[in-house]
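Annotated sample (chain length 329).
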Amino acid sequence: MIELEGVPELVDPVMVAAFEGWNDAGDAASTAVAHLDKEWKGEVFAALDAEDYYDFQVNRPTVWLDGGVRKITWPTTRLSVVRVGGDKPRDLVLVRGIEPSMRWRSFCNEILGFAHELGVELVVIMGALLGDTPHTRPVPVSGVTSDPDLARTMDLEETKYEGPTGIVGILQEACTHAGVPAVSLWAAVPHYVSQPPNPKATLALLNRLEDLIDLRIPLGELAEDARAWQVGVDQLAAEDTEVAEYVQSLEEARDTAELPEASGEAIAREFERYLRRRDGGDGGAAYLRDSPSDRTRPPKPKPTQRPEQGPEDGEGDSGDSGASDSSDD
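Output written by the structure step:
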């Protein structure tokens, strides 16, 4: 029985989770949850027992000094609460940790126990995968669910993926079987710049989360970090003509695939986000926009940077420019 002492009664709580490791290309998803925790000053109320779920030879503890006293930080998953005020108050339960090494079913059941006790109405799990997407375009983010009714009411894709999965996929299915509405948001990270951090992908996940739960998220310096990241990628291989041609081919494929979406709901969604930020005093400046005419030269693709399992747990074919449409789980 989970007992939560000192945790206040929450208002329309949503659980937002992300896990470092296989499901977190460029650390984009875990950084997104860390950003929410920092901006809203989350208060940790629980941590799962590291002994139950982690192989310490895979995820090693770290030693640090506190006033000359040696202390140990163990790899684990922590839960915190953030209280979000404003015209539409809504509280978030943040789950951030490392993909467990063992006992995944018990791990998910423990998280669902907290969700039940806190009255969580929706679970949103964020992940990031490697894909053939150009860094010069907006990051594709797909929203998927195993619940056909939820897919219909929230304008999401219903997952059709079959194959290897990670803790994001397992937790989503655990939520579905427990009757808890659950959604996964997947950002596609360019495979040729897979090294973390990737603030542009983190920003894209937070923008999609805003749309999903109708909650304005303070972005701080994240938009500027995303611009600096793109400039940095441009500068890394400014002399590599071969890769410039490769990126141009990705751009053309992406633009062709998304041309039908250059009207209607897509434009309305972008304009509504701009208005929300303008009314909030940002003047729209916090929202990162990409120019389709930007042609730059990123680092040369390295086959070793692609995940061994093939499609990452965005769980569709990440081998084309439509990564956002095929992402899953």
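Annotation: The first helix runs from residue 28 to 39.
Annotation: The mean pLDDT is 81.
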